């Protein structure tokens, strides 16, 4: 790669969106005005080549897109508006400059959509695996806390979009080396490579007085357990209510529930809200073309997640449901 | 390593310092109150095993310390107070949990000193090189911008502490495999392994009406050129004025100037201020036991850095001084 300073010049944004930015890339650190009417949201996630992606299943552009998308998804899960991002990238010698610029282009595409400014980061060498760490900063109106600990008995459990598609898309990619895909397969592959952070739905939910919320990075089983644990409640989820896409059913219906529960990387939102708010939110989502589905209820009791399947209930663990722990309904 | 969630429980701070923190580690993202009287400073730096450190020259504790120190140094170079940090770490299998906890302990030591809270990050696997990315957030009183572009003709050029010691310390480590060090060598090794971010001096400088400032991560030659470029001025540095420690002179005086100019990783501050402010700042530093040295002057002209050496001036490039570019004094 050429000189680091020349590279920085190339990735430096040509346009600034956020009026609160005082100084972006180019000094020791970025400087930002603080807004007393807002609270700040900050998160940081890393993607490693060979662990979170391979060049066989993701192009440099898609890798960049996804590295930013997973972080924006965390802002969405707090009900916030993403505003800034910083990118640190450790680059092995085998990656050429054009590929690196494509990674930044993939991020810039999403950043433009959400009017986010790239304000800093680092570019360093590494021996082996490309590693991208992204920090995203967002904001939300004061005193709106969409935390995992907000669930209460009597709430309904909801999920946005459809679940399992990303895992199914990865399965398509891993079993089709020639990359000739059917229309159904193309849909699933797209869901894997270009997950949509649910910022708009997060914003709608932020208007409610009380919502618990998580984004689905590790699958419904894991995320539901996190909320149940943080809130000390029982989740009861109906398997028949899980929103599965037409594409996943067509591709491999026998594995669709497994992918929905444990696949992860859907970056949809899962959470709970008081029953009385459900109809209004459902209508709002429907009007804007967003899918939101009621998949269960919250009740009192020692923290756990139950999966109701026909006339039985299973304890749904983070990493799999345990057939030795059947509960009588 | 054990379960990621158990590991997070172990590194989670037991105590919160910053009253502006609403929600730290444990949800999708951290939540922070914004202070209208302050501006926010944000930076992000990555250290890669085999590139920025090796386990032969740095212990896990020192690696952690340094990963946080280099970022705090960027906050110091903006005149700010560090407040929060996020850590993302990509871990190869050969590192055990105790070593990882030592990395976090090394960071916690510095964080406690500066009353900073760990508010997020990520822990992921990697195949080969341990990679640590740290994001640090800091704050500074409104409208105080200690930027590289602030230098003006007539300013004096200063540097804090002594320079070259970190590079000399690395030289000691690389040439003493048995790790039996003289007292002089111990001082230099300590400077390499435990660089001190100059937050206190940065804060004194922030009180001045106009200061240009950079931290010395890449050596005086590189940092002086960055300020000269950003401010479009000429730096004139006197080689005889460069503050060299007794230890570096004793260890290898023939290479001390080379290390001071190009060694880097001293994490001292270099900058400029109006002549009229010098005496006052010098006194303040002296009273608190900090070294600050006037090493040159700023003048008008197309951006460059001159190094005055006996009766000649050389153009000091970022990466070395060029003997073909001697200027008549």
TrEMBL record, chains A, B:
Domain PurM-like N-terminal: 26-140
Chain positions recorded as Mg(2+) 1 binding sites: 45, 122
Positions contributing to Mg(2+) 4 binding: 28, 74
GO term, biological process aspect, one: thiamine biosynthetic process
Keywords: ATP-binding, Kinase, Magnesium, Metal-binding, Nucleotide-binding, Thiamine biosynthesis, Transferase
Binding locations of Mg(2+) 3: 28, 74, 215
Record-listed ATP binding positions: 104, 121-122, 148, 217
Gene3D superfamilies the record matches: PurM-like C-terminal domain, PurM-like, N-terminal domain
Residues that bind substrate: 52, 265, 321
Name of one Pfam family that matches: AIRS_C
GO molecular function list: ATP binding; magnesium ion binding; thiamine-phosphate kinase activity
Binding, Mg(2+) 5: 218
Further comment: Reaction mechanism of ThiL seems to utilize a direct, inline transfer of the gamma-phosphate of ATP to TMP rather than a phosphorylated enzyme intermediate.
Function: Catalyzes the ATP-dependent phosphorylation of thiamine-monophosphate (TMP) to form thiamine-pyrophosphate (TPP), the active form of vitamin B1.
Name of this chain's protein: Thiamine-monophosphate kinase
Gene: thiL
